[in-house]
Fold this sequence. Notes:
The chain has 356 residues and is α/β, with parallel strands linked by helices. It has 14 helices and ten strands.
Amino acid sequence: MRFQRHLFSTDSLRRSLLKIATFAPVGFLLSFLLPPRSEARMMGVTSHVQCAYTTERVTLLSNGVELIGRLYLPTRLSQPAPAVPLLGPVAFVKEQSPVQYATRLAKAGFVSLAFDPRFHGESGGEPRRYESPAAKVADLKAAIDYLLTRPEVAQDRLYLLGVCQGANWAIHATTEDPRIRALAIVAGHYLTAAGIDDYTGGEDKTLTRIERSQQARAQYEERGEVEYMPIVSLDDPDALLPRRPIYEWYRRWEDRGPFWEFHGNWENRITAMSEAELWTYRVDETVKTLNKPTLMIHADRAATGATEPKRIFAQIATPDKQLVWLGNSVQFQFYEEPETIDQCVTQIAEWFNRHA
């Protein structure tokens, strides 16, 4: 009864003060200073709610460069668990789509590692915002190295997950690292000649971008000068991702300040010399040597469209593969919509467990 009276007095005080200040600027301040109703009801009470996972900020090394990640550990592990490092879209930070998948995989019993690759977010490496396929593949292997040092991880149950453009580097790493047991790729922005030309607006525009990027690299190597371009923009045709829907999704990640720290350190810029490395990569050649069990999840309106992913899937070398098609879902649903991501993680967990 004592606790109930405390609750009543706290809520009553809150309502009374807000009512008094309704027509004054102080009302706005009080709404921040007073504890929210749910918090008020917990004042003086210790919560015993058990989350399905715990989170740990971790540091690992990739070729001598410090990477910062978040490790998600399932609670109440009775034995070492399977583990999954994740890679997200081009120039991503861990706080974007990777954390959506990592938390859900942890709930499904997987030790999950979302990390900032070299040159991005909290991780080290220069120049900043340099998109290097070779570095991302090496970073994934370094993530495997790190996970193998953890007592919570089953040494023979290591998997990879790549989302959007990260699918390319997850595929590449899987072809090279024998420790990876199976692979899942979601809404891949698959880098093929046809897919790239469709994205840039045609072969001529692709070649122009590659040439400009090569010039930027020569400038960096000769004089140490780094040329940048925006990742998204509505008025700069040189932006890496110039389409409006992509701009509308990414622009909010630039927000800074105490209310947006959970957005991480995403920056709307990328080195101009990155484009040559991206637009000359050919994942349709890489998959011809992909011999590990592979799950591909895609949709009609996901990146690379409805045709190219099916062609790539057919070229994957292993017969142990599965294609899951989620109707006409759009790319951004794979980044943040709970229902879509839940469907994906259910399929991914089942696939990985099938290949224990």
